[in-house]
Amino acid sequence: MDSQDAGERIRRAAIVWKGGKIVWVGSEDELPTGLDDEIEFDANKNMVVPGLIDCHTHLAFGGWRADEFGQRAMGASYLEIARKGGGIKSTVAQTRAASSDTLVNRCLEFLKEINKLGVTTIECKSGYGLSTADEIKLLNVYDKVRRLQRVRMVSTFLGAHVVPDEFESNPDAYVDLIIEEMLPTISEKGLASFCDVFLEDGAFNLDRSKKILEAAKKLGMRPKLHADQLSDGGGANLAAEVDAISADHLEHTSREGIRAMARAGVVAVSLPIATLYLRQPPLNARDFIEEGARVAVATDFNPGSAPSYHLPLALTLACTMNRMTPEEALKGATLFAAHAIGMSRTIGSIEIGKQADFTLVAADSVDQWFYHFVPTCVTQTYINGDTL
Ligand SMILES: [Zn+2]
Fold first, then answer.
1. Residue 195 bridge partners (DSSP)
2. Centre of ligand 1 from the C-alpha of residue 25, in Å
3. 12 lies in a domain?
4. Span 83-114, pLDDT tens digits
5. Disulfide engineering: 384 pairs with which of 20, 102, 135, 145, CB 3.0-4.6 Å?
């Protein structure tokens, strides 16, 4: 199941789970006696796929940035808008001003809808706080939300999203703050599994990114990287060098960068909704797959470049823009997405011993699901064997 192949399709399948974990899966005709007398649920001719995993989101943020949408249509670039005080910095101001309760309630509302789209696990980044207190506020919001609803959550610290205004004249002092104050505090409180950096012109350069990710690694936080989104900044090579678990975006990654990632086992995460909204040249997944890299697909849900949490939409786009087959796209939002968040041993496929996370889809094939895009194809989700 771990290779590029699509995994097995079983018609008239049966899945048995106990205590939230899968104990048997196969053709219904071969169901062993003794396992067939439990409580039964009929999938009613729906297709059953592993619970979807959105391995890259910025779920907690204040406000929206709908005003920028029209400006971009008139030709303003992402960086131009950022230089005029829009972009990430305007979300930072709105997020700092929002109370924890407001952010918690917003995340809960989002997750209710996200779960209806078949998502059973989600990765959530901080990065709109950019001060020690505000970054911790965001990670605490995720911790609280995790306990209030059922979608499984993994947190990533993204203090290095952009240099905040207070440090504009001295970005190195902000890097020091991340390394000397934010990372140790977050590590001590156990608030994040991963540390991410936005490596880009106008965000963090190669040296600063490396310094932050190396420091995070020493504290047990596995690196992730926003890499090569707007230009080839050497992000893929850096991801390989620091043993990142994933590098995400990669629209401008060179062939050599792709090879370095494949050799190092870094998961490539495609974010086609962001590519679409920013009108970037799309990542060509064929290049990554040819070189032996695993390609995951996620939404990048955020108020600027990807204001939609619709993961099945991202999967349709992965087929049309990234040249992935529907089966590759599905694997990119299940098993390979699980790899991208270090959880492939427990989730990401329907296998004995894994958590009983499934998504029921009213389509007769994966091809049909992503080809005939309907916003509400998912009929039910199970997390740890439960629908509630
Ligand atoms: Zn992102």
1. 157, 223
2. 35
3. no
4. 887 888 899 999 999 999 999 999 999 999 99
5. 20
Strand order in the sheet with 152-160: 52-54, 119-125, 152-160, 194-198, 222-227, 246-249, 267-270, 295-297
Phi-psi sector, 284: left (phi>0), alpha (psi -120 to 50), beta: beta
Q: Is residue 33 part of a domain?
A: no
Tell me if 6 sits within 8 A of 327, measured CB to CB. yes
Centre of ligand 1 from the C-alpha of residue 355, in Å: 27
**Distance from the CA of 342 to the center of ligand 1, in angstroms?**
18
In a domain, residue 14? The reply is no
Q: Distance from the CA of 274 to the center of ligand 1, in angstroms?
A: 8
Neighbours of 284 (CB within 10 A): 18
| Number of other CB atoms surrounding residue 27 within 10 Å | 11
Q: What is the pLDDT of residues 243-291, one digit of tens each?
A: 999 999 999 999 999 999 999 999 999 999 999 998 899 999 999 999 9
Question: What is the Cα–Cα distance from 357 to 305, expressed in whole angstroms?
Answer: 29
- Compute the distance from residue 343 Cα to the ligand 1 centre, in Å: 20
pTM of the model: 0.96
Domain membership of residue 318 as a residue range:
54-340
Q: How many domains does the chain have?
A: 1
Q: Find out whether 361 and 379 touch, Cβ atoms under 8 Å.
A: yes
Phi first, then psi: what are they for 301, rounded to 5°? -45, 120
Q: Rounded to the nearest whole angstrom, what is the distance from the C-alpha of residue 56 to the centroid of ligand 1?
A: 6
CATH code, 179: 3.20.20.140
Cβ count within 10 A of residue 199: 27
Please give the distance, rounded to the nearest whole angstrom, from the Cα atom of residue 126 to the centre of ligand 1: 10
Bridge partners of residue 269, in order along the sequence = 248, 296
Contact 236, 244 (CB under 8 A): no
Q: Is 276 inside any structural domain?
A: yes
- Amino acid symbol at 269: V
